[in-house]
Amino acid sequence: MAGRGELTDAAWERIEPLLPQVDGRGRPWRDHRQVVNGVLWRLRTGAPWRDLPDRYGPWQTVYERFARWKADGTWVKLLEHAQVRDDAVGRVEWTVSIDSTINRAHQHAAGARKKGNTHRDELEDPGRSQARQALGRSRGGLTTKVHLAVDGRGLPLSIVLTPGNVNDATVFGQVLAGIRVPRAAGGRPRTTPERVLGDKAYSSRAIRHLLRRRGIVATIPERRDQAANRRRRGTLGGRPPAFDKPIYRDRNVVERCFARLKQFRAIATRFDKLAYRYRAGVVLAALILWLREPLGDHLSDRL
After folding, report:
1. Torsion angle defined by CA atoms of residues 155, 162, 50 and 289, in that order, rounded to the nearest 10 degrees
2. CA atoms of 104 and 262, how far apart (whole Å)
3. What is the structure's pLDDT at 303?
4. What's the CA gap between 297 and 46, in Å, rounded?
5. Distance between CA atoms of 7 and 4, rounded to whole angstroms?
6. In 3-state terms, the chain is what percent helix, strand and coil (to 5)?
7. Residues with Cβ < 8 Å from 26, sequence gap 6 or more?
8. Rounded mean pLDDT of 173-195?
9. What is the end-to-end Cα distance of the chain in Å, rounded?
């Protein structure tokens, strides 16, 4: 029986076949399920790795497995499999909402060790180093911004990290390009939503042009200053962009997704020094959200 916050039997059955298998060489690996539950415990509590309870095994083993599976793409592959599985039975809702949230970085997240020439690193601008690790400084201190694209159920399809002081509109193209769900039957991956919902931060001519060029319907409210400028120009200002207010109400699914992800304390507050390690935690938390989404019996029979 799974403990609080641990993988259920159903979730474990879905991911177990995708995990690296023992090849008969070297020492046998510690039980995968025990290790994954240890990673989830740390993600849920935000505690230091060294404080991992004994029931999950040596903390070094759990940490090294977490880092190894980030490096070889295992976590990303598991999330992708969950997305493919749902898309194969028509469960993914391709009305996509995009937004971001700012997460405070703990003091332990600053000062990541650099590689390369020591003298050169000592002379490197600290601001550039922080930006490379998706850390931005504002009045609240160091922060990291998590940008998400979620489907109509509020499940993550694309994850991008930036420093907390980066403008949302400048990352829109990167978030949209991160949507890539392979087809279960083969062929080109699904990369184009039917519609994109975004708040006024994404109201720009460049973003609307990008969506129009890709054949994606935009549901983005016009900013007040943009509307005033358009009216001031009269007929030269053109027509107001189309906006479906009832559909726009569905954009709250991305806000609910952020709320669910922040139930993992190591996501709500960043403790990891390296951006790719923190992103691996976000990917794993997103995977748990996908695994918690139930499939009906009639759909399960088709898989």
Report:
1. 0
2. 11
3. 38
4. 36
5. 9
6. 50, 15, 35
7. none
8. 94
9. 25
Residue pair 59/279 in contact by the 8 Å Cβ criterion: no
Q: What is the pLDDT of residues 79-93, one digit of tens each?
A: 999 999 999 999 999
Q: Are 78 and 18 in contact (CB under 8 A)?
A: yes
E-strand ranges in 151-240 read 156-163, 195-197, 217-219
What was the pLDDT predicted at 229? 85
The answer to whether 265 and 285 are in contact (CB under 8 A) is no
More confident residue, 155 or 293: 155
Can you tell me the distance from the alpha carbon of 285 to that of 64, in angstroms, rounded to the nearest whole number? 18
User: Distance of CA 267 to CAs 102, 141, 146, 271, Å?
Assistant: 11, 17, 10, 8
* Cα separation, 25 vs 27, whole angstroms: 7
Predicted pLDDT of residue 127: 63
Residue type at position 213? R
296 or 54, greater pLDDT: 54
Written as six digits, the tokens of 195 are 């519609």
287 touches 82 (CB < 8 A) = yes
> Among all chains, which residue has been given the structure tokens 């990917």?
283
Would you say residue 113 has pLDDT above 90? no
What distance in Å separates the CA atoms of residue 258 and residue 267, rounded to the nearest whole number? 10
pLDDT band at residue 112 under the 50/70/90 scheme: low
15 Rama sector, left if φ>0, alpha if ψ -120 to 50, beta otherwise: alpha
Whole-model pTM? 0.89
Strands in 47-91 per DSSP E:
none
Cα distance between residue 193 and residue 243, in whole Å: 17
Residue 261 CB neighbours (<10 A): 22
What's the pLDDT band for 278 if we cut at 50, 70, 90?
A: very high
